[in-house]
Design brief:
The chain is mainly α. The chain has four helices and no strands.
Length: about 130
């Protein structure tokens, strides 16, 4: 489990830095709506993270089609949680650059935790004998 968490963390850090940079550029630099900036940043990250999660983190040998639909659904659920936290934090923290980034960071944390749990226990779950 420690090795799994280390690989997940490494991929997550790289993916989060890239995604958060895209979000910040779109939100603060181009002044897109926070939810749209967030969605575009995560879209890039989801594609990258699927391949890294499948091959490096969970080392799955399952068929691509089976993994892809489960992964897509899991990421959609994690993203919905992210958007709920982003919206709620945005309302609570108010307008401005620092509150926007704080809300984005809270959404990112929520997404990351949900992502790991869904991937570990559903998407890339280990098969048991007889299943």
């Amino acid at each position: 489990m420690i090795a799994l968490l280390a690989r997940f963390s490494l991929v997550g850090i790289l993916n989060s830095v890239a995604g958060f940079a895209i979000i910040a550029i779109l939100d603060l630099g181009l002044h897109l709506e926070p939810a749209l900036a967030n969605a575009l940043g995560y879209l890039v990250g989801i594609v990258l993270s699927f391949f890294l999660a499948r091959d490096f983190v969970f080392r799955s040998r399952d068929r691509m089609a089976g993994l892809a639909w489960r992964y897509g659904l899991a990421m959609a659920l994690a993203f919905l949680l992210n958007q709920l936290v982003l919206w709620s934090a945005g309302r609570l923290l108010g307008a401005g650059s620092l509150p926007h980034l704080a809300a984005q960071a809270m959404g990112l944390a929520t997404y990351t935790i949900a992502n790991f749990l869904l991937c570990r226990y559903w998407v890339f779950r280990e098969k048991t004998a007889g299943i």
